[in-house]
Amino acid sequence: DRFRRSEMSLSPRSKSRGGKKRFELSEEQRQELKEAFDLFDTEKTGTIDYHELKVAMRALGFDVRKAEVLQLIKEYDRDDSGRIEYDDFLEIMTKKYAERDPSEEILKAFKLFDDDNTGKITLKNLRKIARDLGENLSDDELKAMIDEFDKDQDGSINEDEFLNIMRQTSIY
After folding, report:
1. Which of 8, 34, 52, 134 is most enclosed, with most CB atoms within 10 A?
2. What angle do CA 21, 22, 26 make, to 5 degrees?
């Protein structure tokens, strides 16, 4: 819990309706999207244009290409103004979140921890992260975190062990 970060909280929530699973944004995701929309709606018109949409989507962690963003504007711009409204943005982003692969997202998070690209999260990695987050944890506390999930007992956390940790939480 100490290392929970906003970008790791992008958990899909599915509601079962008539046997079909429907993706639903968490309240935190809705708030994040509203803040992003408001930030990029620079003229405060309640709409964003192609460029603002592209920057907002990238800021939210989606690697979108120009052609995809132009297609979205074309699809959602009902009055040919070259702009979309917040409800359209919310619909677009809900679909984007629903399409995210949780394992891929977890492995992106793993790479943030594994800043020296060894394929393992070591005591050194955890120490740096704790320091960066302003957490004052002793080496013994950090070692205990590793030991709790270190199934192969090599003193570090590999990708599989990290995937298991993250799947046990409510984050993913």
Report:
1. 52
2. 125
**Residue 12 and residue 28: Cα distance in Å, rounded?**
11
Distance in angstroms (rounded) separating the CA atoms of residues 158 and 87: 41
* Whole-angstrom distance, CA of residue 106 vs CA of residue 112: 10
Q: Compute the distance between CA of residue 119 and CA of residue 168 in angstroms, rounded to an integer.
A: 21
Cα separation, 34 vs 51, whole angstroms: 17
pLDDT in tens, 38-68: 999 999 999 999 999 999 999 998 889 999 9
C-alpha span between 64 and 89 (Å, rounded)? 14
pTM here?
Answer: 0.58
Question: 55 Cβ partners below 8 Å, 6+ apart?
Answer: 40
